[in-house]
Design a protein that fits this description.
mainly alpha, about 50% helix, 2 helices, about 10% strand, two-stranded antiparallel ribbon
Length: about 100
């Protein structure tokens, strides 16, 4: 058997960093899919980070819907208020005297 069997090749630091970023990105993508799902889930990351997500109840959904409608109504009213109050014109820049 050769001595190089089972040994990894020499990799540079930037290749290692790229591999770490790819692995962390894959884990983050998986966690995002789990978190955005509409099911009840608990996340325990090596006892360092614990989180529980539960979908909103019907009452919470109604209150959220009302809040979004109120915010949409406020956003629609804001441009009208801004149109009523014109922006002041900027002051002209002073002319610089030429030294000869």
């Amino acid at each position: 058997m050769s001595e190089s069997e089972g040994q990894l090749q020499d990799y540079s630091v930037d290749q290692l960093a790229g591999a770490v970023v790819l692995v962390l990105g894959a884990i983050a993508g998986l966690l995002q899919v789990i978190w955005m799902s509409k099911c009840h889930c608990k996340v325990n990351l090596c006892y360092l980070f614990r989180c529980e997500r539960r979908p909103p109840t019907e009452e919470e959904m109604k209150s959220l819907k009302q809040k979004t409608q109120e915010l949409k109504g406020k956003k629609k009213n804001k441009p009208k208020e801004e149109e009523q109050e014109p922006e002041p014109e900027p002051e002209p820049e002073p002319e610089i005297e030429k030294l000869v």
